[in-house]
UniProtKB/TrEMBL annotation:
NCBIfam families listed in its UniProt record: PRK07564.1-1
Keyword Mitochondrion: no
EC number of the protein: 5.4.2.2
Protein name (record): phosphoglucomutase (alpha-D-glucose-1,6-bisphosphate-dependent)
Catalytic activity: alpha-D-glucose 1-phosphate = alpha-D-glucose 6-phosphate
Length: 542
């Protein structure tokens, strides 16, 4: 029932920041998905007879690739596969299943916050036994194998019914179709005080959770409306669609503008949140106030002890380099470790496994903890709700009080999307070339204290990751960072991260772009992005 199929390599199967992402038609080429999945299996050792978790965010082409992956897992000798019902698992739920059932690893089919549909994006990511994204050592091996692959193994069988909960067999392999939500919801109940949140909601506190027609719809319905008693209507856009209703399932102020406007209106709810295509990102908005992901990390870290799962305190905090330094000040006050990693959740895995960090976050709307090894959108929402349930103050009050205590890190990211790759590389190369000459000089009246190309030395496995972003640090704690996105599927995206630290509470209510105006000009003077790319404005400002 198993066959070996001869194939020829594709030269573009290099996993990016978060797995292999391509347009659907690229994945639909004969043998494309098969080659990549076989390359993943060939990069692993010792999985025979073990368990694999498979699930995806439900986007277009999800069901087809689930069938391919199942048949290949059987032909390659896995003993058992756990599949979310209908092929659905949010990324954090998949991470949890891998950990809970001691799986060897998992295949997560998602292109996260990128659009879905017949001509949009698809992705495949491999996660290891700790539940987290494969480290670079493995993704590099996968890529190397994909360039020389000659054959793959697959079962010749009818499609498996992935919609009915229960166990089936595919050859000798057990295929268990599991409820996509149950184990995850149970985990959340161990971390948070559902009783307190229920009481908060009962007292009249109102909220909206926008699933953006992506994977967290069923999770939000079960947890927020069913278990926490929020009224129907709390969950918005909760029916997962293969094309996310034609929208970008990216919870930021551009793509979740309707939610933002609702929260800014006088009669809006007290709290609003959204999550992305695969449920690992989050957006937090209080009545009248948007909380940046960097601030959210800092505020959650400062208050986490109020939730059951974190009452013993945090071991440490980790953030990606471009994420603002707001959390650093919390770590300093708590006298716990602070770790600065490259962009990409995979870099947090070692710190979490070694119990050096408890909470992690990224400016790209990712927050999470050691409960799984992925960032977790709904987790962030529930931790916020738990904190609000205990403190009984508004989101705005939490933010103002936090800034008064620690100072405010004004922060914004300017993206230039769909830039041609050569010009994007030119911008970064030119910056890199002049790094050594910058310290001591001034731009826009701002004195440069240091400038480097960020390299990360992993304190646990001692691996080194270089060229992770150009940092220009100014005197007084402001900075601009430049890097190329590693998650796009066409052309290049230049990201410019701008941050200014403001200790003075009388200046904590400035409009963000205005507060950063001199740094924005300095970034352009240093990089000449507009001149190099012919763009007048960033395509997205978050
Ligand atoms: C994904 C990853 C994150 C990363 C983000 C942005 O969501 O899981 O870890 O921060 O992409 O990556 P990029 O390379 O596009 O800036
Ligand atoms: Zn995502």
């Amino acid at each position: 029932m198993f066959k070996t199929v001869a194939t020829t390599p594709f030269d573009d199967q290099k996993p990016g920041t978060s797995g292999l992402r391509k347009k659907v038609p690229v994945f639909q080429q004969p043998n494309y998905a098969e080659n990549f999945i076989q390359s993943v299996f060939d990069a692993l050792e010792g999985y025979e007879g073990k368990t694999l978790v498979i699930g995806g965010d439900g986007r277009f082409y999800n069901r087809e690739v689930i069938q391919i992956a199942l048949k290949m897992a059987a032909a390659n000798g896995f003993g058992r596969v756990l599949v979310g019902q209908g092929g659905i698992l949010s990324t954090p739920a998949a991470s949890h299943l891998i950990r809970k059932y001691g799986a060897f690893g998992g295949l997560i089919l998602s292109a996260s916050h990128n659009p879905g549909g017949p001509t949009e994006d698809f992705g495949i990511k491999y996660n290891i036994g700790n539940g987290g994204p494969a480290p670079e050592k493995i993704t590099e091996a996968i890529f190397a194998i994909s360039k020389t692959i000659k054959e793959y193994r697959i079962a010749e069988s009818a499609d498996i019914d992935i919609d009915t909960i229960g166990t089936q067999k595919l050859g000798d392999m057990h295929v268990e179709i599991v409820d996509s939500v149950a184990d995850y919801a149970a985990l959340m109940e161990t971390l948070f005080d559902f009783e307190a949140i229920r009481a908060l909601i009962k007292s009249g506190f109102t909220l909206r959770f926008d699933s953006m027609h992506a994977v967290t719809g069923p999770y939000g319905k079960e947890i927020l409306e069913k278990r926490l008693g929020a009224p129907e209507g709390t969950c918005l856009n909760f029916v997962p669609l293969t094309d996310f209703g034609g929208h970008h399932p990216d919870p930021n102020l551009v793509y979740a503008k309707e939610l933002y406007d609702l929260l800014m209106s006088a009669d809006g709810p007290d709290f609003g949140a959204a999550s992305d295509g695969d449920g690992d990102r989050n957006l937090i908005i209080g009545k009248g106030i948007f909380i940046t992901p960097s601030d959210s990390l800092a505020m959650l870290a400062a208050n986490a002890h109020l939730a059951r799962g974190y009452k013993a305190g945090l071991k440490g905090i980790a953030r990606s380099m471009p994420t603002s330094g707001a959390a650093d000040r919390v770590a300093e006050k708590l006298k716990i470790g602070m770790y600065e990693t490259p962009t990409g959740w995979k870099f947090f895995g070692n710190l979490l496994d070694a119990d050096m960090a408890t909470i992690c976050g990224e400016e790209s709307s990712g927050t999470g903890s050691n409960h799984v090894r992925e960032k977790d959108g709904l987790w962030a929402v529930l931790l916020w709700l738990n904190i609000l349930a205990v403190r009984r103050v508004s989101v705005q009050e939490i933010a103002l009080e936090h800034w008064a205590q620690y100072g405010r890190n004004y922060y914004s990211r300017h993206d230039y999307e769909g830039v041609d790759t050569a010009s994007a590389n030119k911008v970064i190369d030119a910056l890199r070339a002049k790094l050594a000459s910058l310290p001591g000089t001034s731009v826009q009246g701002l004195k440069i204290a240091a400038a480097d190309d960020f390299a990360y030395h992993d304190p646990v496995d001692k691996s080194v990751s270089e060229h992770q972003g150009i940092r220009i640090l100014f005197e007084g704690g402001s900075r601009v960072v430049f890097r190329l996105s590693g998650t796009g599927t066409s052309g290049a995206t230049i990201r410019v991260y701008i941050e200014r630290y403001e200790p003075d509470p009388s200046r904590h209510d400035l409009e963000t772009q205005g507060a950063l105006a001199d740094l924005i000009l300095a970034a352009e003077e240093l990089s000449a992005i507009k001149a190099q790319t012919g763009r007048k404005e960033p395509s997205v400002i978050t």
